[in-house]
Design brief:
Helices cover about 30% and strands about 35% of the residues. It is α+β, with helices and mostly antiparallel strands. A 4-stranded mixed β-sheet has the order 1-2-3-4.
Length: about 70
Amino acid sequence: ALESHDIIVNGLAKMEKKNLDGIIINSAIQKDGGMGSDKNAVILIKKEGEKKEIENRPKEMISKDIFDFFI
């Protein structure tokens, strides 16, 4: 879920509305990462409430974090 403000609140609302088991939230206005960059920062949230915040790091590493968190 790409969000520009209240990213956790809006991401959780999107997860609930779409009845998802989890969601990956990133900010559209983050500095030093995101769209057009090799780095990103994301928040992973499972429907049960477990949450993991991933600081700005290479997207390749984030993909492994996502897999490990949700699988």
